Each structure stands twice: as structure tokens, then as C-alpha cells.
């Protein structure tokens, strides 16, 4: 025997209420999970950092009485010495592209915080971000020709079989030594044991330039 229409109506109403409560609990649980995931991702972002530089154990040996660190040679070239003009290939590049890097980082953070991405992927994102900047650094060193070699340097480079017109490139050891290292912020001292953070030198250079601009 068919159930009366009134009974069917009550049954449907109860079923709809149960469905809404179930849906509400499901949405609440989903929202709670999203909040927890966002907190974990913010912790990751705050705990991990990135440094750009050269392994401090890398040295030039050939043609030298005493080995010299590759990072030191880079700084001599970048900021100049008493006997050599500065060729700020990386500093110039850093100054030109810093806003682009800052914007890319902010976008990377915003995208990572979206609910569809799970926690645990920040380190790999930082590594990809660092590889892009290292690629630009290497290209800047390779392409720099603003201040050419002196005639004596050209002669020496030509005799050694290197391009006499490329001021910063010979063996390419310095160019290829660049890397980005992702590390936990509390482990910074461990990072510095064998890694020269030359990104810091670029930031100091930028501060110096900004200070000069403010004086003008």
C-alpha cells in the first residue's frame, strides 16, 4: 500500500535536512583542513630560505703559486681592485632584475597558499626559483663586455687559447661554480661553513647604490 502524501512530504523534508547537515559538516571539515594546511605552508615558507653563491672550497690552481678561492676572484672582478677596474656583471644584472625576482617570489607564495596545493612542496619550488636566478647570473657573466680587456690581457688570453674579447670568461670555472642552496633558516651557520653567500654581496651593493641615489 502506498504511503500517504503527507508522510512522504515529512520523509523528504527529514532527508533534505540530514543531507544539508551532512553537507555542512563536510564543508566545515574541508574548511578546517584547508586552514591547517595553510598554517603548515606558512611554517614552511618561514622556515626555508635560499642563498646564492659559490662553494668556498673551490679554488684556482693553474698558473698560480698559491691557490686562490673562486669566490674571491669573483669579488675582485665584481667590485674591482687597486690594479683592476670593476666589472659588475652580476651586480648590474641583480639591480635590473630584482623587482622581477621579488614579484616572482610573491606570486610563488600566493599560488602555493591556494587550497589545491598540499603542504610539503615549498622546498622544491624554492629550488626551481633559485635555478632560474642562477641561470641569469651565469648568462650575465658570459655576456659581459661593457669594460673590455686591456691589450696585455687580450694577448695573454690569446696565447692561452681563450677568447681575448670576453672579460670574465676563460676556463668558465667561476661561471659554472655558481649555485643556489635552499636551507632551513636555523641552519644558516651550517650553510656558511663551506658556502660564500654572494647574494649578500649583491644586496650590500644595492644598499650602497640606493644610499648614493638618496644623496643626489
What pattern of helices and strands is seen along the backbone? HEEEHHHHHEHEH
Range of helix content = 55-70%
Read across the widest sheet, the strand sequence of neighbours is: 4-1-5
The largest sheet, given as strand count, sense and whether it forms a barrel, is:
3 strands, antiparallel
Overall number of domains: 1
Low-confidence segments, ≥5 residues, pLDDT <50?
none
Q: Give the end-to-end Cα distance, rounded to a whole number of Å.
A: 96 Å
- Total DSSP E strands: 5
Structural class: mainly alpha
Mean pLDDT: 81
User: Which overall shape is indicated by the principal axes computed on the Cα atoms?
Assistant: elongated
- What is the gyration radius calculated from CA atoms? 29 Å
Distinct helical segment count: 8
Query: What is the beta-strand fraction?
Result: 5-15%
Describe the structure.
The structure is a single chain. The chain is mainly α. The chain has one domain. Helix content is 63%, strand content 10%. It is built from 8 helices and 5 strands; from the N terminus they run αβββαααααβαβα. The strands form 2 sheets. The chain has a 3-stranded antiparallel beta sheet with strand order 4-1-5. Strands 2-3 form a two-stranded antiparallel ribbon. The model has no long low-confidence stretch (mean pLDDT 81).
Descriptors for this entry?
216 residues, mainly alpha, three-stranded antiparallel β-sheet, two-stranded antiparallel sheet, 8 helices
Amino acid at each position: 500500500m502506498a504511503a500517504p502524501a503527507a508522510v512522504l512530504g515529512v520523509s523528504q523534508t527529514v532527508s533534505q535536512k540530514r543531507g544539508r547537515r551532512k553537507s555542512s559538516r563536510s564543508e566545515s571539515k574541508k574548511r578546517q583542513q584547508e586552514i591547517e594546511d595553510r598554517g603548515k605552508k606558512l611554517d614552511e615558507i618561514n622556515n626555508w630560505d635560499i642563498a646564492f653563491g659559490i662553494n668556498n672550497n673551490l679554488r684556482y690552481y693553474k698558473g698560480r703559486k698559491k691557490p686562490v678561492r673562486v669566490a674571491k676572484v669573483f669579488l675582485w672582478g665584481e667590485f674591482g681592485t687597486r690594479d683592476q677596474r670593476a666589472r659588475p656583471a652580476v651586480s648590474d644584472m641583480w639591480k635590473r632584475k630584482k623587482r622581477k625576482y621579488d614579484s616572482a617570489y610573491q606570486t610563488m607564495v600566493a599560488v602555493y597558499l591556494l587550497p589545491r596545493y598540499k603542504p610539503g612542496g615549498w622546498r622544491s619550488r624554492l629550488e626551481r626559483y633559485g635555478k632560474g636566478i642562477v641561470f641569469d647570473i651565469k648568462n650575465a657573466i658570459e655576456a659581459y663586455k661593457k669594460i673590455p680587456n686591456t691589450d696585455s690581457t687580450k694577448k695573454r688570453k690569446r696565447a692561452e687559447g681563450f677568447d681575448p674579447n670576453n672579460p670574465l670568461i676563460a676556463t668558465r670555472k667561476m661561471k659554472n661554480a655558481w649555485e643556489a642552496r635552499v636551507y632551513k633558516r636555523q641552519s644558516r651557520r651550517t650553510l656558511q661553513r663551506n658556502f660564500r653567500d654572494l647574494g649578500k654581496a649583491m644586496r650590500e651593493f644595492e644598499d650602497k647604490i640606493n644610499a648614493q641615489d638618496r644623496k643626489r
